[in-house]
Amino acid sequence: MAASLLSSFPVILHNVPDLIDVHLMSKLLESLGAKVNFTHNKDYKANHTLKVDCGNINNHVMSHETASKLRASLLMLGPILSRFGKITTVFPGGCNIGKRPVDMHIKALEEMGAKIEVEGCNIIATVKGKLQGKEVTLEKISVGATENIIMAATLAEGVTIINNAATEPEVLDLIEFLKKMGANIEISDTRITITGVEELNGCVHKIIPDRIEAGTYALTAIITGGKLELEGISLSDIRCIVNELKAIGANVELYNEGVMISRKNCSIRSANIATDPYPNFPSDMQPQLMSAMCIADGISVIEENIFENRFAHVDELRKLGANISIEKSKATISGIKSLSGANLCATDLRSTAALILISLVASGETIINNSHHLWRGYEAMHEKLNSCGADISISS
């Protein structure tokens, strides 16, 4: 959606989820002068379509109220600066899971010729003429910084090279989208080369399946001992977690137009797992995996190497009876046979999903407060799980 700002022609995106963040991003685009049409209905099985026309952008100042709620608002910095030469935005919002500094975004754009000032919570960026292609080496792998630089470089003058770039499937999908629009981008391992072009066209693109959503539902099957078919997912989509799923006792099989997930005829096995950048185990799957380890046989150790506040869900799992100890970036989980329902409070998107998963096997009723985070990343999760036998109700 942010990349659509690079073109004056309409783009059409298929397979777009009906999420809070999608609606916030639509609101931001419209506030800048874009026309946004999101065709969706209450049937979560429908293929939602989003049409964005940024041909009449007339504003380069982002809404503070909306942008401050949305981490992805920062991804508008590169495209707007590259196409229009100026933008005023704010430090982005999102889940409070740890430090996610914007320094790398700003440093790279400054190297490409932008003048960027930070005034309070505002980021004011301008460039005289065009951004200039440069060789940029990221100090650490960052999906957001990689995406921002790629988008900014598509209309820059000359060649931009990103070293130590993120190569997550979502980054590769963005690149495919940009190439359909006419961008000149090449990838070699963690090195991405972008040769600037004069303008980009419109295109039609289908968004890839969400590997984190798929992984979350896969763990639901493992935790409950059930069986789920994940339609539209391939093994390559979830290759970053397949080994870990199998290690704790999952059957992972190709089935029709998707993947069938079930638990082998055994208890959940304990595991030692560390989160690291792609293609290793993702931090966004760590809370859900911890839920499974709460009822696994033996002792598990999970090391969080990405976000320092990613253990906020531990206190809530303990309320259910889980046996978890924390020492710095490591959580040690001693699996127990049964948990009891409790009154919980979610802290972020993935913790909400993790608490729902483990609540499915806790005895009695569990109430999860502050669960609005869930709708930032999972469409109709309660409906999908209820269709498989869960008993989840939503109240305001």
Automatic annotation (TrEMBL):
Gene3D superfamilies: Enolpyruvate transferase domain
Enolpyruvate transferase domain boundaries: 1-385
GO annotations of cellular component type: cytoplasm
InterPro entries found in the cross-reference section: Enolpyruvate_Tfrase_dom, Enolpyruvate_Tfrase_sf, MurA_subfamily, RNA3'P_cycl/enolpyr_Trfase_a/b, UDP_GlcNAc_COvinyl_MurA
Entry's EC annotation: 2.5.1.7
Keywords: Cell cycle, Cell division, Cell shape, Cell wall biogenesis/degradation, Cytoplasm, Peptidoglycan synthesis, Transferase
Catalytic activity: phosphoenolpyruvate + UDP-N-acetyl-alpha-D-glucosamine = UDP-N-acetyl-3-O-(1-carboxyvinyl)-alpha-D-glucosamine + phosphate
Pfam families per record: EPSP_synthase
Main location: cytoplasm
Recorded metabolic or biological pathway in which this protein acts: Cell wall biogenesis; peptidoglycan biosynthesis
GO molecular function, one term: UDP-N-acetylglucosamine 1-carboxyvinyltransferase activity
Location(s) in or outside the cell: Cytoplasm
Gene Ontology biological process terms in this record: cell division; cell wall organization; regulation of cell shape; UDP-N-acetylgalactosamine biosynthetic process
Family named by the database record: Belongs to the EPSP synthase family. MurA subfamily.
Matching NCBIfam families: murA, PRK09369.1
Entry protein name: UDP-N-acetylglucosamine 1-carboxyvinyltransferase
Species of origin: Trichonephila clavata (Joro spider)
